[in-house]
Each structure stands twice: as structure tokens, then as C-alpha cells.
Amino acid sequence: YISLGNIYFNGEGSIPKNISKGIRFYEKGKAFESLGDIYFNGEEGVPKNILKGLSLYEKGKAFKRLGDIY
Questions:
Q1: In this predicted structure, what is the pLDDT of residue 50?
Q2: Alpha carbon distances (Å) from 55 to 14, 43, 47, 70
Q3: Is the Cα dihedral 49, 10, 29, 66 positive or negative?
Q4: Is the overall model pTM greater than 0.85, yes or no?
């Protein structure tokens, strides 16, 4: 899902840029760091939301720690 998120978020090849579709794929792929960057910095017309960005960074750290346990 993360690769599809990159393709749609950036628009690659014949695929036009589609920010909302890219974000949906990032969410499905649990790309919390990328999502955190998007909201923390307000990238590509997404309204800047520092608290949401920080929350996503924390979620990503927790998710990574879970993966390290297993």
C-alpha cells in the first residue's frame, strides 16, 4: 500500500497526482511517518496540523516497537 501511496501522492508515470488517494493508501499501509510529515508540515495543500502530525509520529514509533517484539 505504501508504494501505491507514493505513486498517487507524487503522481508518477501516467498516474496523475491524487493527494487524497495517496493518503488513503498511506493509511492502509500504516505509513505513519509519511502521514506525520504530511500533516506536520502541511504538504501538498493538506492543512497543517501539528498535533495530528505528532500523534502520527508517536503511532509510528509504537507500531515499530510492536514489530520489534515479534
A1: 97
A2: 34, 16, 15, 23
A3: negative
A4: no
